[in-house]
Amino acid sequence: MVQPARSSAEPRTVAIAVLVVLVVVVAAIFVLRALGIGQDRPPVLLLGDSITHNLNGPIKRQLGGHFAFSVDGKAGFYATHMVGDADAASRFPYEQAVVNLGTNDVNDSSHDLDATIASLEQIIATLSTFQCVHVVTVSEAMVFANGDSSARAQRLNGAIRAVAEQHPNVTVIDWAAIVREHSGEAEALTTDTVHPSEAGNRVLADAYGDALADCPA
């Protein structure tokens, strides 16, 4: 009996399928390791703007042995811009999140802070399945291109504290209070009244660490 000829494309198809599976497995392992899944370090999301971006190295050096940080910080972004990122992050098994947004919103006098507050509320609601969400207040000592933005900062911070009181899993990391407490010290916490200095990043990372450690298991 004449055997039907095997197509030369069959082995190639099998090889491609095996390669695709291997790539998916390796990618999954990489993501899980980055999130700290299967390790002793609980996975933590940092969501924010350039302040969060600049904190990437310092916080991993200070606290990387205790937490597996995934840093999503985008320079110049407002709270509204990060709603989609929060939604995407909610699909991953993070245990905690630190949300540090609002600085750019406050320093843009033409931006409606009601939109900022609504976006923060939406982000908090999106991350409601996390064990703890920590929202950072903005400095009330910032001086930007359009002048002193303290009044806008105070308004936003008041809203942040009010929103946190409505959610049992939300706490406030009070960067505004920390900046006030360190005012006048020789080693300033900011380089331009906005972005933390090297010393400021150490202090901010410590504040994050305290809040993360206090989250109920």
Protein traits:
two-stranded antiparallel sheet; 8 helices; Rossmann fold; single chain; alpha/beta; 217 residues; 14% strand
Topology (elements, then pairings):
Layout: H1 9-35, E1 43-48, H2 50-63, E2 68-73, H3 83-89, E3 96-100, H4 103-107, H5 113-126, E4 132-136, E5 143-144, E6 147-148, H6 150-165, E7 170-173, H7 175-181, H8 198-213
Parallel strand pairs: 1-2, 1-3, 3-4, 4-7
Antiparallel strand pairs: 5-6
Helix pairs in contact: 2-8, 5-6
Structural account:
It is a single chain. This protein is an alpha/beta fold. It folds into two domains: 11-40; 41-213, Rossmann fold (3-Layer(aba) Sandwich). The chain is 49% helix and 14% strand. It is built from eight helices and seven strands; from the N terminus they run H-E-H-E-H-E-H-H-E-E-E-H-E-H-H. Strands 2-1-3-4-7 form a five-stranded parallel β-sheet, sandwiched between helices. A two-stranded antiparallel sheet has the order 5-6. A hairpin with a 2-residue loop joins strand 5 and strand 6 (147-148). Helix 2 packs across helix 8 (198-213) and helix 5 runs parallel beside helix 6. The longest helix is centred in the first third of the chain and has 27 residues, at 9-35. The model is unreliable at 28-32 (pLDDT under 50).
